[in-house]
Amino acid sequence: MSGTVISLVDQHVRAWLESFVVGLNLCPFARPVVASDALRITVCESDELQQVAETFMAELELIQQSPESDIATSLLVLPNALNDFEEYLSFIENAEALIEEMDLVGIIQLASFHPDYQFAGEPAESASHFTNRSPYPVIHFLREEMMERVLEDFPKPEAIPQRNIQTLEEIGRAEIEKRWNSLK
Question: Which residues contact 143 (CB under 8 A, 6 or more apart)?
Fold first, then answer.
């Protein structure tokens, strides 16, 4: 993958962040981070799971060793790997087990985003799936301490997921898909 393609993937992810995550306020804490240099986006161009795992480990190590002012949060973008949603979920499950084994629970948290994200038990056409859909498979590394700080002053943070679903349902599937297709 050339530098130009990596740059296009990065731009595509940033457009998704602006249009969906910030634009629809799906994460009420994202705006300042997305607008800062402390947001790190790493594109792993490999389609080999071994290379993806190595890049995951490197990103995990980097965020642990870097001050929050340098890297507040990191997105590992996988344009060529883990395109099958079930395979992606399996990778995330293993990654979360690794975080536990490394005693990083309470320090680093993972959030998952995928183009085919689907919540178990939800109808396939439900707008709710778009709360976790992204243009490519993405693993989001979050600093738990940072999240605790922003949640302290946020009223009813436990209501965020339901509020997001309501927002997307009010917008409607047709408008969501129109927004989604405009990212391409």
Answer: 63, 68, 72, 73, 107, 108, 109
Q: Rounding to the nearest 10 degrees, give the CA dihedral for residues 46, 63, 161, 164.
A: -70
For residue 1, the model assigns a pLDDT of 56
What is the DSSP track for 56-103? HHHHHHHHHHS-TTT-SEEEEE-TTS--SHHHHHHHHHHHHHHHHHTT
pLDDT digits (tens, 9 = 90+) for 121-136: 999 989 899 999 999 9
C-beta separation of 130 from 92 below 8 A: no
| Residues contacting 132, CB < 8 A, separation 6+ | 112, 113, 114, 117, 119
Phi/psi of residue 39, each to 5°?
-85, 120
pLDDT tens for residues 49-59? Answer: 999 999 999 99
SS3 content of the chain, % helix, strand, coil (to 5): 55, 10, 35
Cα–Cα distance for residue pair 45/78, rounded to 1 Å: 6
Say if pTM beats, i.e. exceeds, 0.90. Answer: yes
State the amino acid at position 93 in one-letter form.
Answer: E
Say how far residue 7 (Cα) sits from the centre of its chain: 18
Classify residue 181 by burial, with Cβ atoms within 10 Å: 0-12, 13-18, 19+.
exposed
Question: CB–CB of 28/153 below 8 Å?
Answer: no
